[in-house]
Amino acid sequence: MPSEHELIQQRLEKRERLLRLADPYPARVQRTHTALEALGGFEVAGGVDNAIDVTIVGRVTAQRVMGKAAFLDLRDGSGRIQLHFRRDALADYDNLDLVDLGDFLEVSGSVFRTRTGEVTVAVASWRVITKALRPLPEKWHGLTDTEARYRQRYLDLIANERSREVARARSIIVSAVRQFFLNRGFLEVETPVLQEHAGGAAARPFTTHHNALDRDLVLRISLELHLKRLLVGGFEKVFEIGRVFRNEGVSYRHNPEFTLLESYEAYADYHDVAAMVEELLGFVAVQAHGTTEFHHGEVALSLKAPFARTTYHGALLEHAGIDYRQYPTTEALREVARSRNVPVADGASWATILDALMSTFVEPKLIQPTFIFDYPTALSPLAKKKVDDEDTVERFELFALGYEIANAYSELNDPVDQRERMEAQAAKQTEGDEEAEVADEDFLVAIEHGMPPAGGLGIGMDRLVQLIMGEHSLREVILFPTMRDRGDE
């Protein structure tokens, strides 16, 4: 079997021969029908042979040459259609030996049905409109190597219908989320990617340098603090769907850049937001699947409201038998983690250890959509405290299939309390906690002008697509995921 280098050389030679005939990379093509329209037009015409003429374009995905006739499959963005070339009908029939799998053709002809019943274009004229120099993966039998699929997504999309389906569904899902919020009167906005401070989440940022200003900036890790500034400015319902960047590990569950939805609604609390999230997920599921009931692998998943509800304290007590209120110090909680064989770093804070216990014992058991309400204050520096419990905040997270889907607060709008919490977080950062919240002075000044009570929401769009589409890895729903160096995979 020829090597890839030899196959490329053969294609380069064919390119040279094509150049002597005509330009195999023309700037303009003619198209009257897509493949799907050609098939549909034949049926509309009553299935009468040669009743409609078409000009279609697309990539060659199969070839069957039989001397006096040849059948090729042509695929465009709408689907596949068969082409029939006859030696006695085409003066340039022999030039088909210059065509390889992966080339793009423009063909004109009439539509008919073959003896085997397949709707086909009888080619009257044709030309190459792109000569491909590299062969398609595995001669079109499919690209199955997972690493190659992610690194060369274009080949994955050529070879695998499922990958094209997920990509199309992602567009539908993002559009559905946007439409849901617009229908509810939210204003879509855009906020800065380059920022002075990485605020709104606990994560390590990426740093870059602005040459003209001669100062370092960070890529945003959240959308929150700028969207809240807009509440101060008088907008009552705002949302953004945008890219955020977190300098963290790369895995099937994490990507350092991802798409985040955040919304903020004045005069709403976290219970209002929870009700909205139930409506949102049901709406999106129907747009993507036509139903709120579907399978995720072997799991029959239901996104029909209402979702299950519990509390952070209750969930950890139920699933792990741990009452974290009995372990108020870092060392006491560390001992609990050690006794349960939960690894934690030596310098981990009380909140980090508690989160590790939750991630180990509770989250994997939350298969059907489940709201976890009322988080410890130490885990939520931007949420409003509960009136009857200073150590607990009005926050929920929504879990399904064992991972977080949504995060929401009754937003903290007391500027004094907010300053104290941010300064406490900033102190942790000076002590070496790179993921601690920063004290954003401009944001603190903004809310000192008065921010109305509000309910805020964050949803990772990649995880939402993963949930809706039944995929088990974020890399399946991100077209171009960040990958390790080849030797490190």
Portion of residues within helices: 25-40%
- The chain-level mean pLDDT equals 93
Q: Could you give a short account of the major beta sheet? A: 9 strands, mixed
**Uncertain regions spanning at least 5 consecutive residues:** none
**Morphology call:** elongated
Could you give the distance between the termini? Answer: 29 Å
Q: Beta fraction of the residues?
A: 25-35%
Rg over alpha carbons: 29 Å
Number of strands: 19
Number of helices: 13
SS-derived structural category: alpha+beta
What does this structure look like?
The protein is of the alpha+beta class and 489 residues long. The protein has 13 helices and 19 strands. The strands form four sheets. Strands 6, 10, 11, 14, 15, 16, 17, 18 and 19 form a nine-stranded mixed beta sheet that branches. The chain has a five-stranded mixed β-barrel with strand order 1-2-3-5-4. A three-stranded antiparallel beta sheet has the order 7-9-8, with no helix packed on it. Helix 5 packs across helix 13. The protein is elongated, with a radius of gyration of 29 Å. It starts with a helix and ends in a 20-residue tail after the last helix. The relative contact order is 0.10. The mean pLDDT is 93.
